[in-house]
Design brief:
InterPro entries: ATP-dep_DNA_ligase, DNA_ligase_ATP-dep_cent, DNA_ligase_ATP-dep_CS, NA-bd_OB-fold
Largest sheet: 6 strands, mixed
Radius of gyration: 22 Å
GO molecular function, one term: DNA ligase (ATP) activity
Number of helices: 6
Helix content: 10-25%
Order of helices and strands: EEEEHEHHEEHEHEEEEEHEEEEEEE
Distance between the termini: 53 Å
Family: Belongs to the ATP-dependent DNA ligase family.
Number of strands: 20
Shape: globular
Catalytic activity: ATP + (deoxyribonucleotide)n-3'-hydroxyl + 5'-phospho-(deoxyribonucleotide)m = (deoxyribonucleotide)n+m + AMP + diphosphate
Pfam families: DNA_ligase_A_M (PF01068)
CATH architecture of the largest domain: 2-Layer Sandwich
């Protein structure tokens, strides 16, 4: 495999349960909630941090670039996730967003809000291409590199286990710290840029929300714009669902009522209020509805700015419930 220019990271496809196989078939790692980053240390020990989409991000995370220069050998390429641990011990994605928008203040934030780079794979070491080796061998190479990395460094080796029971323990315990779930990797797998050769199992929970708007039309809604009331009675946009199936849309359409001018949301939702495709530049055009329809949805643990960051999954309407039955903010229970 040629490692020249930008490298697309290997990806994972979503699953709803752990894949089955003989003992030792899979290796399990926490799914860190951060910024994916490919790091390259050149032969003259220059460092290049590359985002998931190929952007140069050295200026955003100087503490990570410096640590890689200090502790990784020349002509080495690694893959990992940049994260920020909040003082309360949770992963803080909002802090990463602040860093992303900081501009010249990024260097100051690297001292006041330092980030960590959690490494979970290696593609090249000391000029040797190892991407074609099985994951088990690449992991041993990565572990040897960490012998020279001090414990207090911002570089960290990702947790990994071959034991599915231990993996389930992580799945059910680490979500309170903002860990999204598990990444499951075939132990024999080679590193293939852009390929979806891994699996991801996200920690999801079921909760209630109000429908405040839809994309598409009232007779054929395509996606739901979900809302929750906050502590002072404001209806806030909290999520956007994945695309509705035809039966789900038919089930919801008779329950939806167009809203009048008193609806609390603007006619077009500003960027970032309800997700959307990467690179989208225009406000979201949607149809406002009276926020009286309660739906049951499945959401994951990732949140920022009092919104669920990833799309929710519509499960079913709850016509016997009212707005007063829906939890406030992002609480899971009333």
């Amino acid at each position: 495999m040629q490692l020249q220019g930008a490298i697309e990271p290997m990806r994972a496809k979503a699953v709803d349960q752990l894949p089955e196989g003989p003992a030792g078939s899979y290796l399990y790692e926490p799914k860190w909630d951060g910024f994916r980053c490919i790091a390259m240390v050149s032969e003259d020990r220059g460092v290049h941090l590359q985002s998931r989409r190929g952007a140069h991000i050295n200026d955003l995370f100087p503490e990570v670039a410096w640590a890689l220069h200090e502790y990784l050998p020349a002509a080495t390429v690694v893959d990992g996730e940049i994260v920020r641990w909040a003082p309360d011990g949770r992963l803080d994605f909002t802090a990463l967003q602040r860093r992303n928008m900081a501009g010249r203040r990024a260097e100051d934030l690297s001292r006041t809000e330092p980030c960590h780079y959690i490494l979970f794979d290696i593609l090249r070491t000391r000029g040797r291409d190892v991407a074609g080796l099985p994951l088990t061998e690449r992991r041993r190479i990565l572990e040897k590199l960490f012998v020279a990395v001090p414990p207090a460094s911002v570089l960290a080796l990702s947790m990994q286990t071959a034991d599915p029971i231990e993996a389930w323990t992580w799945f059910w315990s680490l979500h309170v710290a903002g860990v999204e779930g598990l990444v499951i990797k075939p132990a024999w797998s080679r590193y293939k840029p852009a390929a979806r050769g891994w699996y991801k199992l996200k920690h999801r929970t079921t909760t209630l929300a109000l429908v405040g708007g839809v994309t598409g039309t009232l007779t054929r809604p395509r996606e739901l714009l979900l809302g929750r009331y906050d502590d002072i009675g404001r209806l806030r946009v909290t999520a956007r669902t994945t695309r509705l199936s035809t039966p789900a849309a038919s089930q919801l359409a008779p329950l939806l009522t167009p809203a009048g001018p008193a609806h609390p949301w603007p006619e077009q939702l500003p960027l970032g209020w309800a997700g959307g495709l990467y690179g989208q530049r225009e406000p979201l055009i949607y149809v406002r509805v009276q926020p009286c329809v309660v739906v049951e949805v499945s959401v994951d643990v990732a949140a920022e700015h009092r919104r669920w960051r990833h799309a929710a999954r519509f499960l079913r309407p709850q016509p016997d419930l009212m707005a007063a039955d829906v939890p406030l903010n992002l609480d899971l229970e009333r």
